[in-house]
Amino acid sequence: MKEIILIGGGGHCKAVIDVIEQEGKFQIAGIVDKSELIETDVFGYPVIGTDSDLNSLVKIHTHAIVTVGQIKLPDTRIKLFNLAMKAGFILPTIISPRAYVSEYANIGDGSVIMHNALVNANAKVGRNCIINTNSLIEHDSNVADHCHIATNTVINGCVSVGQGSFIGSGSITKEGISIVENSFIKARSIVK
Question: In what order do the strands lie in the sheet with 160-161?
Answer without folding.
Answer: 106-107, 124-125, 142-143, 160-161, 178-179
